[in-house]
Write a structure and sequence with these properties.
Elements lengths: L7 H4 L13 H14 L3 E3 L9 E6 L2 E14 L3 E8 L2 E11 L2 E6 L5 E6 L1 H14 L15
Antiparallel strand pairs: 1-2, 2-3, 3-6, 4-5, 6-7
The protein binds zinc ion.
């Protein structure tokens, strides 16, 4: 069974692009199970120890979105702040300011290019998970808006 990575040194590493989504089917199944088990809103592969560019985003009651090699294509000019927590950083929440909506291009599980547009909570989660791929975690935002 996979475990959640909580070591910040590991979490600060940058994930590498994948070549073929079908090679990672097993990992994605395990990530989906992890998301269910922890009742998380999203998960990046680095959080279960794989430094590759895969994120999943909860879409309850539907299956989660699975994005391979996601790239932020466009963000709104409006920003919103919200209090975020992270499965990898237990018992801590951080206020983070992010664009309100985000357009992300990615590959789907058959390797086709797709575009996702997220707003509201899903936009927050999507950008939080994108951060993980670039080695950024919520505590990196401390000091910006949290009064330190
Ligand atoms: Zn996180």
């Amino acid at each position: 069974m996979l475990e959640i990575v909580t070591n910040t040194h590991e979490l600060h590493r940058i994930s590498i692009p994948i070549h073929n989504p079908s090679e990672h089917r097993h990992l994605v199944i395990e990530m989906r199970e992890m998301l269910l088990r922890t009742q998380g809103l999203g998960l990046a592969a680095v959080q279960v120890g794989s430094l590759i560019r895969i994120i999943i985003i909860d879409n309850d009651p539907y299956p989660p979105f699975v994005l391979y090699n996601p790239l932020i294509a466009k963000t709104s000019e409006q920003f919103a702040t919200s209090e975020e927590s992270c499965l990898s950083i237990p018992d801590k929440s951080v206020i983070v300011r992010r664009p309100k909506t985000v357009k992300i291009s990615a590959l789907n599980n058959t390797g086709d290019a797709v575009v996702f547009k997220f707003s509201g909570l899903k936009a927050v989660v999507a950008q939080h998970e994108m951060d993980h791929l670039n080695g950024v975690i919520i505590t990196d935002y401390l000091g910006e808006l949290n009064g330190f």
